[in-house]
Amino acid sequence: MSKKTAKRRNLLLAFSRDRKIPYLLLGIGLILFPILDSYTPHVDFVGDAGRWILLALGLNIVVGYAGLLDLGYAAFFAIGSYTFAILASPQFGIHISFWLLLFVAAFVAAFFGIVLGAPTLRLRGDYLAIVTLGFGEIVPRVIRNASKFTGGVNGIVGTDQPKIPAFLGFHGYSFGLNPVPYYYLMLVIIVVTILLIRNLRNSRLGRAWMAVREDEVAAAATGINTVTTKLLAFALGASFSGFAGSYYASKLFIVTPETFSFVVSVTVLLMVVLGGMGNIRGVIVGALVIYAIQSYVLVQLPGWIASATQALNIGFLNNIDVAGYVQRSSILIFGVILVVIMLIRPQGLIPSAQRKVELEQGTVEESVSDLRGSA
């Protein structure tokens, strides 16, 4: 083998072993996606998936890292959306820049995360879940009844769209209703979010979250301030929902309280648990899977069933409205899909290494007879 051939082979081996290469290729593919697929509904569909990814990444801080069960996460999403809508719409004649409100909404959502976290510091498990569930139900009702500020059930219409200001000869650009700039905006937000969360996970605070998740009493005994640790988990987790809320409000052009129901909180929690709690890649995959099932598979399934029934041309099937039954049973089908996935992958689609070991190896339990014998 010549030196030239050996050098090429070594380069190929190094290229194949480099873990950053798949992410680089994925990034290039995501950047080129709107160019390769100019059909705007597809770009809009993928851009909306980014909103769910952002929500799932934020909840993963609370549930996956800190181990705090939050069933009211949609409330922070609502707070972020209405913060933007009130300050950038004809509701009060205020029109603050989207780029500033992106951070303002995150800070307001983080503040309410602290408001929720402060009274619940002594609560754990089911009790914490009940309190967060109550908070998630209270916020939409307050929004619905505070019609003077929020527009009530009609919501706030005419939210401002993002605009790139003019500078250095550039005449500026308004996003309008074009989904392509929203897609790239969400792509940038998600990349920045992943980098921030990765740094948080590897920081002293991230290690403190995981210590509290494993054993709060032991964490406190080692000198970790569990009060600030848990409050920061609630605040930082809520802040990312504030980002998602401002993006959602500006893109949709309208904000209504019905959008932030309990179902949203459950859906985001499903994304985190199904993907793999505590694992960024797993959470992203879980968000994409749940979003694809809800927004594409279950929507298209009745049509697929109807086409299959016609193609098979079986007599008794033609006399039964199979597609109609499937459409009416979409929630049941969704539940069955979730049960099957969790039975096959109880640790999640891409679990964190620690959780994978815990679920696969488990703990050794002694029987009563063994305990008696050893006593």
Oligomerization status of the protein chains: single chain
Order of helices and strands: HHHHEEHHHEEEHHHHEHHHHHHH
- The total of helices stands at 18
End-to-end distance? 69 Å
Find the count of extended strands (DSSP E, 2+ residues): 6
Helical content band: over 70%
Low-confidence stretches: 363-375
- What is Rg? 24 Å
For the largest beta-sheet, the strand count, sense and barrel status come to: 2 strands, antiparallel
Q: Can you list the strand order of the major beta sheet? A: 1-2
Can you tell me about this structure?
By secondary structure, this protein is mainly alpha-helical. It has a domain at 18-274. Helices cover 73% and strands 3% of the residues. It contains 18 helices and six strands. It has helices at residues 3-17, 20-36, 40-65, 73-87, 98-117, 125-145, 147-150, 179-202, 204-214, 216-221, 226-252, 262-275, 280-312, 315-318, 322-328, 330-344, 353-361, 368-374; strands at 88-89, 94-95, 156-157, 163-164, 173-174, 254-255. The strands form three sheets. The protein has a two-stranded antiparallel ribbon with strand order 1-2. The protein has a two-stranded antiparallel sheet with strand order 3-6. A hairpin with a 4-residue loop joins strand 1 and strand 2. Helix 3 runs parallel beside helix 8 (179-202). The longest helix has 33 residues, at 280-312.
